[in-house]
Amino acid sequence: MMSFKARLISVLLGIAVLALISFLVRRRRIYNIYAITWFLFSLLFICMGIFPGFVETLAAMLGIYFTPAAILVVAVGGTMAIVLHLSIIVSEQHKQIRQFEKEIALLKKEEPVS
Q1: At residue 81, does pLDDT exceed 90?
Q2: FRET pair for 64, CA 20 to 30 Å: which of 27, 71, 85, 101?
């Protein structure tokens, strides 16, 4: 069973992330698709704090006997998923930059030298 302090920290952490993401969305500093991911992540932490049985059920499904370790598994797993997603985006942008470099080089080559 999660202690009251652990539940409170989970809820406060979820609310803090939710508030930060809301602020970033209002300032247009984060794209909506990423904001949705972070909103879901923060709601998961809020749910874990409000419904401690959820954490115990999750720990049992994962075969984890120490319930707080399940919270860490969820946090690390979620963070890894976000990092993987961002790595995919960076890779795609790198390909686009290389393509733009090639196109610019061709355009400069076609320009008459004055």
Answers
A1: no
A2: 85
- Cα separations (Å) of 50 from 4, 30, 39, 53? 10, 28, 16, 9
What's the total number of domains in the chain? 1
pLDDT digits (tens, 9 = 90+) for 45-66: 899 889 988 888 888 998 998 8
Residue 20's SS3 state is: helix
* CA quadruple 60, 66, 68, 71: dihedral sign: negative
pLDDT at 110: 84
Ordered DSSP codes for 27-96: TT-S-HHHHHHHHHHHHHHHHHHH-HHHHHHHHHHHT-SSHHHHHHHHHHHHHHHHHHHHHHHHHHHHHH
